[in-house]
Structures are given as C-alpha cells and as structure tokens.
Amino acid sequence: MENARFLTGQFLLAMPGIGDPRFDRAAIAICAHDANGAVGIGLGDVIEGLGLHTLLEQFKIDPGKAPDAPVHLGGPVEPRRGFVIHSTDWGGQDTIDVAGRWSLSGTVDVLRAIAAGTGPARFVVALGYAGWGGGQLDEELTRHGWFNVPGDLGLLYDTPAAERWERGFAEAGIDSRLLASGAGNA
After folding, report:
1. Cβ(74)–Cβ(129) under 8 Å?
2. What is the third-level CATH fold of 10-177?
3. What distance in Å separates the CA atoms of residue 128 and residue 65, rounded to the nearest whole number?
C-alpha cells in the first residue's frame, strides 16, 4: 500500500500567497511522490494559442480523430517536453500507473494513438512539469503554500483548467474566496 504521507494520485493546490508567481492558482496532478522526490503535471492553466492539433502537426501526425483539446502549462521544468495524463484503458511502453486512478505517458506513441482513435478514452495534454527533490515537497507541505485534495477524476477530466483550482478547494469544503494570502500569528 502507498505510504499515506506521499501524495501520488492526488491534487496539489497552491494557497494564495504561495510566493512563486509560476504557481499562482496552480492545480497540480501529483503523478509520483516518494522519498526520492515528486513529479506533478500542472493542470490549472492552458497555453494560449496552442491546441492539440497544432501539437500533433509539430510531430507530423495527422490529427485524425483527435479533438483540438487545449494544451496545459504542465510546469516550469522542461517546458518543451510533453505529457499525457489519461484513463487507465490504454498503455504504451513508458506508461506509468498513478495510484490506480490515472496513467501518465510521455512519449509520442500516446499522441499517435489519440489521433488514430485507438488511444485512451479520456486524456489531458501538458507541456512541462513540476518537480521536487527528495524531501523537498514534504518540507514545503509543512509551511503555508500547498493544500492537497483527493485525485478526483471529475476534477481531472471534466473541469476546465481555469476552474480546477477553485473546484478543488470547493470539493474539500473550502470557499477559495475566503482564503488569506499569508499565514497568521496567534
């Protein structure tokens, strides 16, 4: 069983006032988290002017049956590297299972399958990722900055990027409009 202190398969939501503008209103799907570090894909913002069809054409793949879905800003690390978070009904040579909730693929075979209509039933495409070294995320979680929520598939697949952050808090029973941007003193 996954160690309860690790957040694989959950969402990490940035608290107001996190102090890093790259993570303002971030909603990050944590795809791997263990003693060696963590990797997450940001799903709270899309890359303006870049849709899946354009991305596929850059790889010389005919968009075929693929919808022209938005491409998300996955994070500040390797911003030209692509990732697809997808349903567990498809797998390629590099696909990893994320706590049985979803899968993550990072090679072009998943894009070819989506274009051919033989890929995963549900998917989200992103460029870049967020990464933390061993113990770094664990330490950040002890300070004001991040809030984790369950890896709800509705939040992942059915919620537009601009609404994920707010909906993540709402599903935890928190009205994001009432969150303060700093830690208090008692």
Report:
1. yes
2. VC0467-like (3.40.1740)
3. 25
